[in-house]
Design brief:
The complex is a heterodimer of chains A (345) and B (478).
Chain A: E1 8-13, H1 19-28, E2 33-34, E3 42-45, E4 51-56, H2 58-67, E5 72-76, H3 77-84, E6 90-94, E7 102-109, H4 118-130, E8 135-139, H5 142-151, E9 157-161, H6 169-172, E10 177-182, H7 186-190, E11 193-204, E12 206-211, H8 212-216, H9 219-238, E13 241-249, H10 253-260, E14 273-277, E15 289-297, H11 301-310, E16 314-320, H12 330-340
Parallel strand pairs in A: 1-4, 1-5, 8-9, 8-10
Antiparallel strand pairs in A: 2-3, 3-4, 5-12, 6-12, 7-10, 7-11, 13-15, 13-16, 14-15
Helix pairs in contact in A: 2-3
Chain B: H1 18-37, E1 41-42, E2 48-50, H2 51-57, H3 60-63, E3 67-71, E4 74-78, H4 83-94, E5 101-110, E6 122-131, H5 137-152, E7 159-164, H6 165-175, H7 179-187, H8 189-194, H9 196-204, H10 222-235, H11 247-259, H12 264-278, E8 281-282, H13 284-297, H14 303-317, E9 325-328, E10 341-346, E11 352-358, H15 362-365, E12 373-379, H16 380-386, E13 397-401, H17 407-419, E14 423-426, H18 433-443, E15 447-451, E16 456-461, E17 465-470, H19 471-474
Parallel strand pairs in B: 1-5, 7-9, 13-14, 13-15
Antiparallel strand pairs in B: 2-4, 3-4, 5-6, 6-12, 7-10, 8-9, 10-11, 11-12, 15-16, 16-17
The chains are: A alpha+beta (345), B alpha+beta (478).
């Protein structure tokens, strides 16, 4: 690889359902990925120095982080758990990036009217074994599915490897049932399959992973990763927030504050900011005007506006919040803690 | 460029340096010798086994820790324990031997555990099987051998915890629960103490998804009901004919489920009794009293309690201190093949050193005649961590050096010295006398023997200076 040791190697999904939302997430964090054309498998991120973006298939990203070929990457939690196992080099830096949500579930033919719950599946496995067959489960998540069955005391079954179009397997006759990832269940229904109750193997979504060795051994890389997760976290925290600016009449700041905060949502984090307005209209009466600014949850914007009107406000403006930084980054502290933990011998 | 650390052992495995390996070997030999004195004959079995041997009989705890893989179409596993293989070998090779058969084994096992201090994914088990011996006599022998072996290798303040899975089995059998519910209760037995709510939820969820009430159809005979349901399903377009199961089998199972009388009450009662049983973890006298009371309340025979009492009496007769024994009737050791007594021995710091028990059904389930069997295994590395450190006595060693041109003579001199009881190392680097003397000091060797020709040598003693002469004269007697 031609990158120098100092460059942070950041792997992003090259295609598939993770590709667009990943680029959108980064762009909304001010980290625009410039990829001149889709044939190109490397790119840069404006605003993130010393970082080289490499596009890989999501499952390869997990393997490359484990092997230390890339430093950090975005992939699906399902792939991380399936492919990464318990490799000590693999760190999940941020388990939930807020998109690509899907569940890994067990599904059986809809015609199996006698099967509702996991215990029916366990029963069937025993019935099949007694009849000299093995229950065949098609999946590409061999490790996760096997552990799920084993942990529940079911050992007699066969996993049928299936890379893609798994939901077709029972219809085509090469498996009895499947374990697959589903967002809405549409593909399952179209193939006349139903989800088995109580058998959700994993709840998955996009996540940020990194290599322990690479990050533990290089402070510069840690700093860059810190920037990325600070921005992602602040952007996610900002999603549900809006800033309200308005002019409120009142004799003094304390009275205005008193009127405002009778609505609890207008208290903001520590209290509203209130500043005097120096009126540009000489014919104005004796009323003092105050400019207020407060951050509220988007759900409460309308209620807050109604309240501001009631107390005589004018010029009410609501702005989206781009970032909301906490006093410290939860993910970054967690990362540093994980890096400090001595690898078990 | 990519920096990788040097080659490491696989996670959870480790390299053992010579100083430690000498100790481990010595300890292993002492344990094996004790077994030999009790009449246990060594046996070996492959490290690689058919996966199904463990899937069918091992407990869920162990199966989850199995290293298994498919190789050229065959499902294989690395052995996670010896008993299944040893009993399989017994059936193939020794089943015509007069009973009892006493077998001993030692070697590595592999389990995919969470690596921790003194918990490795590959470790050494040293153990025995007593085949054809019945409780309580054979149980007492096995417990006695385990405890006395620990005493002999200098493990201080071990603690013996004894349970008896036969008591839980007796209680469950009397409740006439469906087979699967009973076996699930037994699997969950040990977890009952840790997470009772979750065990309850799992057992009850069996009944959770409500189907529908058969109503007046209840009185139809099974075959008519099945026919009716199947006709209806086909009529409304459910593709029952298009799956890997026979439509009749699907409907038959549905009817069975619809007709199943709710065993929830039975499960509740079983849970209540097992919870009481698993709370019995105390000194032997009180424990046995409490257990006898529990069985009496359920109107059941106290035979397993009497058996346990008799075993304990025999153990005390071998001089075992009563205060180091705890009875724990909630223990199940995570292996499904146990039928009677089960036990664990832990060291002062709470690490488990030994585990074992009775498995009277295992040989039958491997296709042999019903044969009682009981055994245990030590974890060698853990015992080494707590056993008294005994220096390993080495033979006195010598470094033999010759000019390179006379190396053949050196070889012969070295062999002569070895036969006289020395440990002789030949210089293979062509070093000077000075360098060899330094090397001898560093290795703790007694002398450098400089070979002049086949008969004449110079004995450079590290402490006493040099002597030149005929080989036979110069070499001291050991």
């Amino acid at each position: 690889m031609r990158s120098s040791a100092a460059m942070l190697r950041f792997a992003l999904p090259s295609k598939g359902t993770l590709y667009e939302p990943t680029l959108q997430l980064l762009q909304s964090c001010g980290l625009r990925v410039s990829r001149p054309n889709l044939k190109q498998y490397t790119a840069r991120i404006a605003g993130l120095p010393d970082t080289e973006v490499l596009f890989h298939r999501p499952s390869d990203i997990v393997a490359k982080v484990v092997a230390g070929d890339v430093d950090i990457g975005i992939s699906g939690l399902d792939l991380v758990r399936e492919e990464g196992g318990d490799d000590p080099n693999l760190l999940v830096i941020e388990p939930d990036l807020g998109f690509a949500r899907a569940d890994l579930v067990l599904a059986v033919p809809e015609a199996w009217v006698d099967v509702q719950s996991w215990l029916d599946v366990a029963d069937l496995a025993a019935d099949f074994a007694a009849a000299g067959r093995q229950l065949r489960v098609a999946t590409k998540y061999r490790n996760l599915v096997r552990s799920f069955f084993y942990e529940r005391g079911v050992y007699m079954f066969t996993l049928v490897d299936s890379q893609g179009a798994t939901e077709g397997a029972p219809g085509l006759g090469y498996a009895d049932m499947i374990a697959d990832i589903t967002e809405t269940g549409t593909a399952l229904r179209e193939n006349r399959l139903k989800v088995v109750a109580g058998a959700t193997i994993l709840r998955s979504q996009a996540c940020l992973i990194g290599g322990r060795r690479a990050l533990a051994g290089d402070e510069r890389k840690r700093e860059i990763v810190g920037t990325v997760i600070e921005l992602v976290e602040a952007q996610r925290r900002a999603r549900g927030l809006a800033q309200i600016i308005a002019n409120v009449p009142g004799p003094d700041a304390a009275t205005v504050a008193g009127c405002m905060t009778t609505n609890p949502h207008l208290r903001g984090l520590q209290g509203p900011t209130i500043a005097p307005v120096f009126s540009s209209r000489p014919d104005a009466d004796a009323t003092n005007w105050w400019s207020i600014s407060v951050v509220v949850a988007t759900d409460h914007v309308l209620g807050a506006v109604v309240h501001l009107r009631e107390i005589g406000s004018t010029g009410i403006v609501v702005l989206p919040v781009q970032y909301a930084f906490a006093d410290r980054s939860v993910s970054y502290s967690r990362l540093l803690q994980a890096l400090n933990q001595q690898e078990e011998t | 460029m990519n920096e990788r650390p040097g080659w490491q052992p696989v996670r959870g495995a480790r390299d053992v340096p010579p100083t430690e390996q000498l100790r481990l070997r010595a300890l292993q030999q002492r344990l094996e010798n004790i077994g030999r004195q009790w009449g246990y004959q060594p046996i070996d079995v492959p490290l690689l086994e058919q996966r199904d041997l463990y899937l069918k009989k091992a407990g869920e705890e162990l199966v989850g820790k199995l290293y298994d893989f498919v190789h050229h179409g065959r499902a294989l596993a690395l052995r996670p324990e010896w008993t299944s293989s040893v009993l399989r070998a017994y059936l193939r090779l020794l089943r015509s031997e007069p009973l009892p058969v006493r077998l001993a084994y030692s070697g590595p096992v592999l389990r995919y555990e969470r690596p921790q201090r003194t918990t490795y994914r590959q470790f050494t088990q040293v153990g025995v099987e007593l085949i054809g011996g019945v409780a309580p006599l054979a149980d007492a022998e096995i417990l006695g051998l385990a405890c006395l072996s620990l005493d002999a290798v200098g493990v201080k303040n071990w603690k013996l915890t004894v349970g008896h899975i036969g008591i839980a089995r007796t209680l469950l059998a009397a409740m006439r629960l469906p087979e699967r519910t009973a076996s699930q209760l037994l699997w969950s037995f040990e977890r009952l103490r840790r997470e009772p709510a979750q065990v309850r939820a799992e057992l009850m969820s069996d009944e959770a998804p409500e189907l529908f009430d058969l109503g007046p159809l209840q009185s139809l005979p099974d075959d008519q009901l099945q026919h009716l349901l199947l006709t209806m399903l086909r009529a409304v377009g459910v593709p029952v004919d298009n799956t890997s199961r026979e439509p009749e089998a699907i409907v038959a199972r549905l009817v069975r489920k619809l007709r199943r009388s709710e065993p929830a009450a039975g499960v509740e009662q079983a849970l209540a009794v097992l919870t009481q049983l698993s709370a019995i973890r105390m000194q032997p006298r009180e424990a046995l009293q409490a257990a006898a009371q529990l069985l009496g309340d359920e109107g059941l025979s106290a035979a397993p309690i009497q058996e346990l009492q008799a075993t304990l009496d025999l153990l005390l007769a071998q001089g075992m201190p009563l205060e180091r024994i705890v009875i724990d009737l909630g223990m199940s050791r995570g292996l499904h093949y146990y039928t009677g007594i089960i036990f664990e021995i832990e060291g002062e710091d709470g690490l488990q050193l030994c585990g074992g028990g009775r498995y009277d059904d295992l040989i039958a389930s491997l296709g042999g005649p019903t044969t009682p069997a009981v055994g245990f295994a030590f974890g060698l590395e853990r015992i080494a961590a707590v056993a008294e450190q005994r220096p390993v006595v080495e033979q006195p060693s010598l470094v033999v050096m010759t000019p390179t041109s006379r190396h053949a003579e050196g070889l012969r001199v070295a062999e002569y010295l070895r036969q006289r009881g020395f440990l002789a190392l030949l210089d293979v680097r062509g070093r000077s006398l000075q360098a060899n003397l330094r090397d001898a000091m560093r290795r703790g060797a007694r002398a450098v023997v400089e070979v002049e020709d086949e008969q004449t040598v110079v004995w450079h003693d590290v402490w006493e200076g040099a002597r030149r002469g005929n080989l036979a004269e110069v070499v001291p007697h050991l």
